[in-house]
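Exercise 7.
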Amino acid sequence: MVKNEIPLVDAPTIPSQSLEDLQEEGQEYIDTRAGSAGLQNGQPIQVKVRRETHTFHPDKYFFKDVKGKTRQTAKKDWTQIKHNGKRVWAHYGKTTVYISDIEIT
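Solution. The predicted structure, written as tokens, is:
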């Protein structure tokens, strides 16, 4: 069975095409990867962290990521680093580093 449809004038871009192929065709490349908007010139992002204390299991720490989603972490997910000459608590996401506004204890 043969389809009697009009063929596409300009073929759609396939995700497996390289950036060079897009530039050769004159198409514009837009970075739409998740987390790329969260990087501010490679600088960590300061977040407000809320601590939820627990008696029989580790405390939970909540903050909003760059997409606005509430993230739940534990103390083991945070590390102390030096940032701008002072020691702060940092959480490493997939592509973004978050700096806590409170002491993680």
